[in-house]
Sequence to fold (245 residues):
Amino acid sequence: MNSEQPISAPPTEPDGTVTDRVYDAIYRAVLEHRLAPGEWLREAEMATEFKVSRTVVRQALQRLAQDQVIELRHNRGARVPLPSLEDAVHVFEARRIVECEVARRLGGRLSSEQLAELRAIAQAEQAADQRGDRAEAIRLSGDFHHALTRMHGNPVFGRLLNGLLPTTSLLMARCKVDGGQVCVAHRHADVIEALLRGSAPAAAEMRKHLAELERSLVDTPVRGRRLRDAFAAYRESSPTDPESP
Fold:
């Protein structure tokens, strides 16, 4: 995420930079719906796709599992989680606790620079949605929520949100009836306007925002995508692992 990178333990292996890139590519692919809920991530196939060693892939998958972005199944490998509507109840309860408090604390207290940053993200998100760039709109939606949490200043809230956003995105990929972007149900511009009015309006608007997202979920069939399609952007822009086979 641009506003706040996924938070996890710093890599200790010599090729940690490569592992970070693989971690980030998979995190973004989950968040942007380029990996389908329930999709299996096999080490050998991913090593080929990323042009890195299987050791690098394994390290990235282990970190992603620790951050609850993917699941590691004994003797079966890694899988993108398949959240249910029951999971949504818990996810949105946690998001309300974190993000309504963030909004309450920030209401009426944001600087002109912070407001300008939030407006720029919201405008870019709307533009991406209008031109049909689904992945970019989803990424920017996450950036908006991350930016608010960063402005609040509590790093624990940032870590919590890092774990909640991928699950929210998977719920939207599986259960959102119109297939729209994560926050299409309620414009972030309304959240910004509420933040200008003070603590109570900001918290109430965030609660409304999250409630609308939760109400938009319905059970729908899961559709997969080819792995090489999910990581096309990574292969086009990233260097390869010098130790890859």
The chain has two domains: 16-82+222-237, 85-215. The chain has eleven helices and three strands.
